[in-house]
Amino acid sequence: MPATEFQGSFGRSLLTLRRDQTDSNHHHHQPQNTMEAELDSFQRQVAEKFIDLNASAGDNNLLSLDWISKLLDSFLCCQEEFRAIIFNHRSQISTPPMDRILSDYFERSIKALDVCNAIRDGIEQIRQWQKLSDIVISALDSHRPVGEGQLRRAKKALIDLAIGMLDEKDHSSATSLAHRNRSFGRAKDNHSHHRSFGHFRSLSWSVSRSWSASKQLQALANNLNTPKPNDVAASNGLAVPVYTMTSVLLFVMWVLVAAIPCQDRGLQVNFSVPRHYQWAVPVMSLHDKIVEESKRRDRKNCCGLLKEIEMIEKSSRVMNELVDSIQFPLSEEKESEVKQRVVELVEVHEGLKKGLDPFERKVREVFHRIVRSRTESLDSLC
Question: Is residue 350 a part of any domain in this protein?
């Protein structure tokens, strides 16, 4: 969807930004020096990336695996441009104030590495849900008649799936679901199963048990201020792209925590960008949309805002309610309905299966690119 189709003031802002950029390309009366042009080009490129991300967020695509992968691609492109700027002006980064400003950026980037690790653990958690979906699909296979044993097996997997997808703070619902699961076996066995399922969740995180995604984001955002005019002047403008890249880094990590299950999720981060930055309007628009999504009544207690997670939740909930309503002997109409719901679950399952591996590779690439950028810049300081 092109920017001209955007509604309201945001659409007009994007249109103005594009027009101003075109005008600046054709009507500069005084030539910029090479460094000014390079730094201005970086700001425009960041703005364009986020304008495109706003456009691709339409049609209910925001926070899908596909959209977040595009966000990570945009981050990698910005990171590469930022890396080139630092390399081209490496003679200036070892002197005040750039040594301090750049050191602060790389300290924040280390915190981002922990977020990437936690997100990869969250991806593994989603894979466990896929395995439970597999059990449901296999038990209610559309090519075989549905029997009572198959129904019990599917019901047990659906309840385990519901427990696994609850936000870790929602203990009361987990206890209620575990209690319902007792009808499929001895109470002692099911209690043991629920405990072991929770034990698996606690072991699945590679970050420490005390680690908190919410606190990590707050540490990333702490004292992130626009560069002071004297720092901008003393750094010949280099303080501005560092601030830009730090803001992009924080936003990307915030989106990952919003979308993917991770330890002690929380989105309460003070994120604000002055509107005079070219990329401020599209970035803050995405931020506001995601905050609104998190406030939706049916998403408040979810373990992640990823669209595919919402689809699994809805599909498995409908299937669970259907299975609850089944009585034997099974009527042809009810069996047909079961088969149809299985087909829908398969579609959701296959979509997730197709997108999850490429997404994990992208997160891994972000991790390694941050490490490489930091290592190269520290070498330049030596």
Answer: yes
Domain contains 193? no
User: What whole-number distance in Å separates Cα of residue 320 and Cα of residue 314?
Assistant: 10
Q: What is the pTM of this model?
A: 0.83
Look at residue 196 and tell me if it is in a domain. no
Task: Evaluate whether 63 touches 359 at the Cβ level (below 8 Å).
Answer: no
**Residue 165 identity:** M
Tens digits of per-residue pLDDT, 35-52?
999 999 999 999 999 999
**What φ, ψ does residue 302 adopt, rounded to 5°?**
-80, 160
**pLDDT grade, residue 146 (50/70/90)?**
confident
296 CB burial (10 A radius; 0-12, 13-18, 19+): exposed
User: Given the structure tokens 């009810």, which residue do they identify?
Assistant: 334
Q: Which domain holds residue 254?
A: 37-167+206-379
> Distance (Å, rounded) from C-alpha 122 to C-alpha 304?
9
> Would the CA dihedral through 52, 45, 268, 264 be positive or negative?
positive
Please tell me the total count of domains within the chain.
1
Using DSSP's 3-state secondary structure scheme, residue 166 falls into: strand
Give Cβ neighbours of residue 203 (< 8 Å, ≥ 6 apart).
Answer: none
Give CA–CA dist 213/381, Å, rounded: 31
